[in-house]
Design a protein that fits this description.
Blueprint (H helix, E strand, L loop, with lengths): L1 H34 L19 E14 L2 H6 L9 H4 L3 H4 L4 E6 L21 H9 L3 E3 L9 H15 L3 E2 L5 H5 L2 E5 L2 E9 L20 H14 L2 E7 L10 H13 L3 E5 L4 E8 L5 E8 L1 E4 L8 E14 L2 E17 L7 E4 L11 H11 L5
Parallel strand pairs: 1-2, 1-11, 2-3, 3-4, 6-7, 7-8, 8-10
Antiparallel strand pairs: 1-12, 5-6, 9-10, 12-13, 13-14
Length: 382
């Protein structure tokens, strides 16, 4: 009788033990599952091949002409705190900011007021000129020209020190031999541009002995070496060159011969300076069949010179197109353009660089006819 009464109780206990055991087993299984890495169901593998793909990268490079700061220009920029040249470029700033890379020919040294400012024939300009160029979108300045040594070695070095501190790249005049050997290569949009700069001379001022790095003088052997070195490091080589005859509106035979030499050696774009007036631009074909753009003179961009085309300048630009394919990389130039400008002033005051198309409202007589003439003068044939 006791056994019969205990059977239900024993049955309940056995069931409870079995249930507890099953619960422990289930928990252990879950722990083991969690410890194992997740395995997703298999699927068909897909391969992604770039074979046959073509990539194009583009940028626009441009240059403006002579920044030639006469005393009447820097006196017009004088303020209670120093100098401010930014208003002089305000009317064209939007246009100057459009290219991806912009070069300017800094004709006068930026030695600063501590050296004493000076004008023609031996120039020295305020540092604030460079500040205005940076503000307007200039990315690099060319410093090899006939005024590089106007104030001697100290002037050139003071200018370099300022440009270095301001973060504005320079080319053509250097602080030492090591600085000279360093190529100026600017990278943008996956395209690298090497900038070189040379001048025909320094107005008879001798380069200090053993200090050729202070200014690059035109020398075909030296230019050939640097161009070839630049071609190995950059996609495009740009030459800023000081040459030609002042106030002549067309290049001479020396310019043409030197331009063809540079193109044959591998220069892709030549931006010319020194004549202080605009000279045409054209395509030249190298010995290997490639095409290069030559702008013989960009004229004055900001200066105190007036009349006889000396107050008309502008910005030349060209597109660089880099194509990358499985077969290799190629670079071509396209769509050269010219944006003409005018330096307006009133009684040697209120100097302003304005679009030539708007120059009629800034005192230029027959501005419409002048604009048409300059557009024709700078037109380039494909």
């Amino acid at each position: 009788m006791k056994i019969n009464r205990l059977m239900p109780l024993l049955t309940i206990i056995v069931l409870m033990l079995l249930g507890a055991g099953f619960f422990v087993y289930q928990q252990q299984t879950e722990v083991e599952k969690a410890a194992k890495p997740m395995v997703l169901s298999s699927h068909n593998e897909r391969s992604c091949s770039v074979e046959g793909k073509t990539f194009k990268q583009k940028l626009t490079i441009a240059a403006i002409g002579d920044i030639l700061i006469h005393d009447r220009v820097y006196e017009d920029a004088r303020t209670a705190e120093g100098f401010d040249f930014k208003p002089m470029l305000a009317a064209v700033k939007d246009e100057l900011e459009k290219p991806d890379l912009l070069l300017a020919n800094q004709e006068t040294i930026l030695g600063g007021v501590e050296m004493g400012l000076s004008s023609y024939p031996s120039f020295n300009s305020p540092h604030e000129v460079g500040d205005a160029l940076i503000d307007a979108g200039v990315d690099i300045v060319s410093t090899a020209n006939n005024h590089t040594l106007d104030r001697g070695e100290k002037g050139a070095q003071n200018s370099i020190s300022y440009l270095t501190a301001a973060g504005l790249p320079y080319v053509g005049s250097f602080k030492d031999e090591e600085d000279k050997k360093r190529l100026r290569i600017l990278d943008k949009n996956g395209i690298s541009i090497a900038y070189l700069s040379y001048t025909y001379g320094t107005n008879g001022i001798p380069v200090p002995e053993g200090k050729d790095y202070l200014v690059n003088l035109i020398d075909k052997a030296a230019m050939e070496e640097e161009v070839h070195r630049a071609k190995k490091e950059a996609d495009v080589v740009v030459m800023s060159i000081h040459w030609g005859n002042e106030y002549q509106r067309h290049p001479d035979e020396i310019q043409k011969e030197l331009a063809q030499f540079l193109v044959n050696e591998g220069v892709d774009v030549v931006f010319g300076h020194h004549p202080h007036v605009l000279q045409p631009m054209e395509w030249l074909t190298a010995e290997d069949g490639s095409k290069s753009l030559v702008v013989y003179s960009l004229g004055n961009f900001l200066s105190g010179q007036v009349w006889d085309y000396k107050d008309i300048g502008g910005m030349a630009s060209v597109e660089v197109i880099k194509t990358v394919t499985p077969r290799g990389t190629s670079v071509e130039l396209a769509n050269p353009a010219f944006y003409p400008t005018f330096v307006a002033s009133n009684g040697q005051r209120n100097y302003r660089v304005v679009p030539l198309k708007d120059a009629g409202s800034h005192g230029l007589k027959d501005a419409g006819a002048k604009y048409t003439e300059i557009a024709e003068h700078m037109k380039i044939e494909d």
